[in-house]
Amino acid sequence: MRTVFFDVDTQIDFVFPAGALYVPGSEHIIPNIARLNNYAVKNGIPLVSTMDAHMENDPEFKAWKPHCVVGTVGQQKPSVTLVGEGQIFLEKQSVDCFTVPTLPALLENLNADHYIVYGVVTEICVRHAVLGLLKTGKQVTVVTDAVKSLSDKASSSMLTEFAALGGHFTQTSHF
């Protein structure tokens, strides 16, 4: 079975208290993100790391305050989550990574049977990633101790929807 890991939007603006759109408590999942990313690369598993990449005055800033502006510290990934060769960065301008025109070709090239997904925000960007990946017909698993939400209720609803569509769950300790 060919597996691909998806590290969704674990960027400084989201995961650290000083970040522009800080997700409370998300700094606590960083060790799990680092563990998963390192596991993937050490085991020859492709790692796709999505990243918000906005320009100043981006249309998304009508809904969310400015964040992850290209070239700023806030757009970067925490250094412990960077694993070098084998990490594929996918920059996106919206909450849905499937709006990136190159993603379908990347997925086809990676030829995965199984996707392992983690990151922020569970009910927003992670939701779009897992629902899009499920549409590929492949197995999708969320690492529950490596995701963080803004709303426990919205997160619970998303995870229930995901499970009803055939999604699976695991924990970092599995890797």
CATH superfamily: Isochorismatase-like
Q: Find the count of extended strands (DSSP E, 2+ residues).
A: 6
| Residue share in β-strands | 15-25%
The CATH architecture can be named as 3-Layer(aba) Sandwich
Mean pLDDT: 96
Number of domain units: 1
SS field, number of helical segments: 5
Main sheet summary? 6 strands, parallel
SSE order, as H and E?
A: EHHEEHEHEHE
Secondary structure: helix percent:
25-40%
Strand order of the largest sheet: 3-2-1-4-5-6
User: Which regions have little confidence, pLDDT < 50, spanning 5+ residues?
Assistant: none
- Counting helices, strands and paired strands, the structural category is alpha/beta
The CATH topology corresponds to Rossmann fold
Q: CATH class, please?
A: Alpha Beta
Layout: helices, strands, pairs:
Elements: E1 3-8, H1 12-15, H2 30-42, E2 47-52, E3 87-92, H3 103-110, E4 114-120, H4 122-134, E5 139-148, H5 152-164, E6 168-170
Task: Provide keyphrases for this structure.
single chain, 175 residues, alpha/beta, Rossmann fold, six-stranded parallel beta sheet, 29% helix, 22% strand
Describe the structure.
This protein is α/β, with parallel strands linked by helices and 175 residues long. The protein has five helices and six strands, in the order E-H-H-E-E-H-E-H-E-H-E. Helix 5 (152-164) links the parallel strand 5 (139-148) and strand 6 (168-170). The model has no long low-confidence stretch (mean pLDDT 96). A six-stranded parallel β-sheet has the order 3-2-1-4-5-6, sandwiched between helices. The chain starts with a strand and ends in a 5-residue tail after the last strand. It is globular and about 40 Å long. The chain has a single domain, classed as Isochorismatase-like (Rossmann fold), CATH 3.40.50.850.
